């Protein structure tokens, strides 16, 4: 079955067209085409190609996720053979927030779309983009292949009550379905499975902490391949400092700022999502590459932004180790986790007491050691792992369709 996996991020849209057969469900799948649209907005650019070989498209019209999806579908329509648009048999789309009712991959229906629209305010940087992507696919492929939503929250659905419960009045949490949902589950699934395969370990035996650090950032404790705690909660705003998101803060700041600034609560929430984090502290950029450049040039605001980001991540890492009762491996993924040696070193510094020791030479060039950056004699392996969310999206979509229409599966 040829499945198009679409992965909308806060400012990007990645895609992969894969072919899956029943005996390949748990393995690598043949990649027919792949690519991405980055920096969605006036300066959007794209990469695309057959298989994993991609070429640059330096200027494309993609002012929003809908237009980015239209570009991807248009590019696929221009391809011949198996990678062509007409040969797609199913589409899987990443959706960040599924709410209390959507704990598994599900086919898109009008009622599911309505539910995702209601959740838009809880993931304002993500769910709107996912819905725009879904709408574009439905318009372009009228009466065509089924479209499935694959949720970031699913991985965390079975977190222990102690980890997902807020200390609020019980009647409120019960009435409104309030709990800590957790996010980045698709990426976490990918890197935990890849690490187990690389190390030849059984997932059931492992205690792993995943630091998924990008524009959005989270730390997750994983035992036996299942999430037991995570830094993000009711929305993707909780937890670590991020590119433009504040992460943890005292909720009394919201009414205080609303009064002091003459703003509404919704405006303050927008500031916390779009004007805070690395961007807010530095006043210059939410991109860690630029933060590090400014920091190295002596900019004090960039320096404190870097330090707060890494300090908060270190605290959450140590907390997840405590939740696990120890740790066997620490995995860094995401744009910052994979590419910032300085951030990895700062986060791991001072954690030698629990067996985390970084090798500076390996940390500077993790590809030399298949991603391992920990010292040879360290008790805890520290690894840099690239997430392949599209592979998981395609696999979950296939599994859903196999369970609902087994007689039609190839």
Instruction: Please write the CATH class name of the largest domain.
Output: Alpha Beta
* β-strand number: 13
Q: What is the averaged pLDDT score?
A: 92
| Major sheet summary line | 8 strands, mixed
Measured by DSSP, the beta-strand proportion falls in 15-25%
What Rg is obtained from the alpha carbons, in whole angstroms? Answer: 21 Å
How many domains comprise the coordinates? 2
Spatial sequence of strands, sheet with the most strands: 5-4-3-2-1-6-8-7
Written as H for each helix and E for each strand, in order along the chain, the element string is: EEEEEHEEHHEHHHEEEHHHHHEHHHEH
What class would the helix/strand composition place it in? alpha/beta
CATH topology of the largest domain: Nucleotidyltransferase, domain 5
Q: Percent of residues in helical segments?
A: 25-40%
Report, as a whole number of angstroms, the end-to-end distance.
6 Å
Inertia-based shape? globular
The tally of helices reads: 15
Based on the coordinates given, report the CATH architecture of the largest domain: 2-Layer Sandwich
What is the H level of CATH, i.e. the homologous superfamily of the largest domain?
A: ATPase, nucleotide binding domain
List segments where confidence is low: pLDDT < 50 over at least 5 consecutive residues. Answer: none
Quick structural summary:
The protein is α/β, with parallel strands linked by helices. The chain has helices at 65-77, 110-118, 127-140, 161-164, 170-176, 185-199, 253-261, 265-274, 277-282, 288-296, 300-324, 334-339, 341-348, 360-364, 389-404; strands at residues 2-8, 13-19, 30-38, 45-50, 55-57, 90-95, 106-107, 147-151, 207-213, 217-223, 226-230, 329-333, 381-384.
């Amino acid at each position: 079955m040829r499945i198009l996996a679409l992965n909308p991020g806060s400012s990007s849209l990645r895609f992969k067209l894969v072919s899956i057969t029943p005996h390949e469900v748990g393995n690598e799948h043949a990649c027919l085409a792949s690519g991405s649209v980055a920096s969605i907005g006036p300066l959007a650019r794209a990469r695309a190609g057959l298989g994993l070989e991609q070429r640059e498209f330096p200027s494309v019209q993609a002012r929003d996720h809908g237009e980015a999806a239209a570009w991807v579908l248009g590019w696929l329509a221009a391809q011949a053979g198996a990678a062509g648009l007409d040969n797609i048999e199913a589409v899987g789309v990443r959706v960040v927030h599924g709410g209390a009712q959507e704990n598994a991959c599900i086919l898109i229906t009008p009622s599911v779309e309505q539910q995702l629209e209601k959740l838009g305010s809880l993931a304002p940087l993500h769910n709107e983009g996912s819905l725009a992507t879904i709408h574009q696919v439905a318009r372009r492929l009228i009466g065509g292949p089924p479209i499935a939503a694959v949720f970031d929250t699913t991985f965390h659905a079975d977190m222990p009550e102690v980890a997902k419960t807020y200390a609020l009045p019980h009647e409120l949490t019960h009435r409104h379905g309030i709990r800590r949902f957790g996010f980045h589950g698709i990426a976490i699934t990918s890197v935990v499975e890849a690490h187990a395969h690389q190390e030849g370990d059984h997932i059931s035996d492992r205690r792993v902490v995943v630091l998924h650090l990008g524009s959005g950032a989270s730390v997750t404790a994983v035992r036996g391949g299942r999430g037991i705690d995570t830094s993000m909660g009711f929305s993707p705003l909780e937890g670590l400092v991020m590119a433009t998101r504040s992460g943890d803060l005292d909720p009394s700041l919201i009414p205080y700022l609303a009064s002091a600034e003459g703003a509404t609560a919704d405006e303050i929430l927008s500031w916390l999502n779009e004007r805070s984090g690395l961007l807010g502290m530095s006043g210059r950029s939410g991109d860690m590459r630029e933060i590090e450049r400014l920091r190295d040039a002596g900019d004090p605001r960039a320096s404190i932004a870097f330090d707060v980001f890494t300090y908060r991540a270190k605290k959450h890492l140590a907390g997840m180790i405590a939740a696990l009762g120890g740790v066997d491996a620490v995995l860094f993924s995401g744009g910052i986790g994979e590419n910032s040696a300085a951030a990895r070193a700062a986060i791991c510094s001072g954690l030698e007491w629990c067996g985390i020791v970084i090798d500076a030479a390996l940390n500077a060039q993790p590809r030399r050691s298949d991603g391992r950056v920990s010292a040879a004699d360290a008790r805890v392996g520290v690894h840099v792992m690239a997430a392949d969310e599209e592979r998981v999206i395609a696999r979950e979509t296939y599994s859903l369709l196999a369970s609902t229409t087994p007689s039609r599966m190839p």
